[in-house]
Amino acid sequence: MPALLSRYATPFITGLFLVSLLSGVAIFFHWGPGAFHGIHEWLSMVLILPFVLHLWKNWRPLSAYMKRPPMAIALVVSVLASLAFFIPSGSPDGGQRAGNPQAVFQLLSNAKIAQVSAIIGRTEADLVAELQKAGFASAAPDMTLSAIASASGKSDRELIGKVASLRPR
């Protein structure tokens, strides 16, 4: 491996991992701008190259780890934890939906104001007024939340975050 690549593999893994960590936490807690989603996805993809270079550079010590129980246990636990998001759960229509919390986000994004207002205990007119006041100027009762966010130049996450912050009246 060329010395330049060898010298930068681990520092880039560290830097990109920190970016991925912070953007992931921001996405999870719905903090900051919608840009965190793009940052997290794209820079996590960029992280693959330095990770592969790091594996190549450190293959001997890593292969020694592979022979020990802690690595096997950590890998099995990690895979099992991720499988929870693929377990189907029943849906009201009798179909199956993945157990992924993202499914709820998708349902909300595709819901119209009337449906969402009923869920949060607000009238349609009140919800439209609150959204317009919050900068979602195109909000209208016959639009989905996703359409409102898109027409307002904002992300679905920003809009759903605003809706989630509203209290019933």
UniProtKB/TrEMBL annotation:
The keyword Membrane applies. The chain crosses the membrane at residues 12-33, 39-56, 68-87. This is DUF4405 domain-containing protein. Keywords: Membrane, Transmembrane, Transmembrane helix.
